[in-house]
Amino acid sequence: MPAEIQQGIGRAAAALTAIGAATSETVRASDVARAIGLGASTTGRLLTSLEELGYVRRDPATGFYSIGTAILELASHGLNQNPVHRESRAAAQELAQRIGLSVNVGIRDGASVVYLCHFEGALAPKSHTMIGMGQPLHASALGKCLLLDLTEDERRALLGEALPAYTASTITDHAALTAELAAAAVRGVCVEEQELALGRSGLAAPIRDATGGVVAAISVSGRLSVMRERDTDTITEQLIETADRISVGLGLISAVPHRPVAAND
User: Fold this and answer.
1) pLDDT over threshold 70, residue 62
2) Domain HTH iclR-type: where (predicted)?
């Protein structure tokens, strides 16, 4: 029985993932079946159960499937239960409105950074949200901040020896990543310039909890041309101040001693 329950949960999760990952709004039952490797009848029964539970929605006119409201409600509960989200939401939104750029807050989930907050300023409109999406740690400003407390050996164990390249500017060498993080620790922010996507640039500052450890990060990002038109020093100051405000809300009450980032501590 436990094996059957695990199989059922796995199939449901796979179906939800297939629908959520679709690049179009025309997801049919046959598309889901093909994506998860199940027969049409089995997939049909699975989707019917998920629809009854509110986890998926089937358009009665077209038969197309989409993520249901029950998933949105669960995601909302998950965000509201997260202390980083609660403490950072208002501060991040205020920063985005003040500087006109995109502001994101992320936490580490395994070898990825996952977005908890995403706000857009007037200079950085988007037609989609980044909340819940993941990005590689080594190629994003947010991700680099979440690596600051780790030694090089710990980063190698977490990320693996091979660091994937997303553009010609991506750091793909652990020694180079260690040097970049050491420089970031001194200046107080991590930098990303066309490392994850061409034409994009960003800065990020670490968010710490009561222990002084890095538990999240907040970033400012936008098109490269727009970022270069802004006063980087002013953005950096406001970003660090906002990160500090959130850290205080999480219980940080004393200064954190500077610890050099090295290959082995």
Assistant:
1) yes
2) 6-69
